[in-house]
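Entry 14: structure prediction run for TraB domain containing. Input pasted below.
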Amino acid sequence: MQGEQQQEAAAETVSSSDAPEDGPGDAVDVSQNISDADAFKILLEMKMKKRHKEPSLPSTVTELATEEGSKVYVVGTAHFSDSSKRDVVKTIQEVQPDVVVVELCQYRVSMLKMDEKTLLKEAKEINLEKLQQAIKQNGVMSGLMQMLLLKVSAHITEQLGMAPGGEFREAFKEASKVPFCKFHLGDRPIPVTFKRAIAALSFWQKVKLAWGLCFLSDPISKDDVEKCKQKDLLEQMMAEMIGEFPDLHRTIVSERDIYLTYMLKQAAKQIELPRASEAEPRKCIPAVVVGVVGMGHVPGIEKNWNTDLNIQEIMSVPPPSTSSKILRFVIKATVFGLMGYGCYRIGQRTVRLILSMPTAQNCLQKLAEIRPRHSTSC
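Run finished. Output tokens:
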């Protein structure tokens, strides 16, 4: 079941500084006599006291609820925005969630633990090594598409001097400060998204989209980013370029809306309270969840919230089309052809260079002199 495959990137307990302020002797006695179940209950009570019944939330937060009474606070963000970072921090501090879900998959989780300087450098650099890795992970066409989208992200990064995903890193940090808070990756794996996106396009649509992405150069200001709090900047730029490709919009945006909604619902299942013994009956309470997603996904999540969702279909990868196979063959043939021609040219120049050396000329001259002598002796 897909819900069981949610990945927990962080689940840390509260630090000792958040414990009740007792004397040193009392603290030692408590730590020696208290059971694990009682300690869990104490920390849970502390968490509940910090949780505001009527939290003061930013305007970018949408509140949803499940039939079981769980609450989900969806923070709509712009991926390149300091304001979004503050919104995420405030929301987590106010509601003290049981689970935090972010719009990331396992292929992008590394950005959570990288520092801003390294991320900024990585986001700006698109090299052959990254291209090879993308093709190895996703195939030729999907890999090329991923690199083109990285180029869009790199363009924004260069224009703003700001690394993407700051709101996700803030969510990761804040979740680690909340007792027993789990951290889930809620986005569909990026290889599946790209492969489905490529399969949805005809050959000429792929060429046209690639051309538009390659020649992206419009300047972007920080004001433009904040204006896009109503719609994520990266997704807005993509929407402008793929507006004439409804199937591409469906795979990149609409299907991911469904997947994100499904994962938020899975995270919002009731949580079980600790028991002092096996004989004690199980008791469950509604969960509190914070979702951190691009603002462009919020309307789709609201739309799908009360719908029974099945994500099997949107997780399947269709077989490559005939045009994709032909294009893959042409690209490979071109690459190998260029490599072969390059080796030929390099080899030709190398031979000429060796033959032009005095030592090589002397050897050839001696060989030329030896041959006539050998012929005469025979």
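Notes: The beta strands are 8-12, 61-65, 71-77, 99-102, 181-185, 271-272, 284-285, 288-294. Will compare against the previous run tomorrow.
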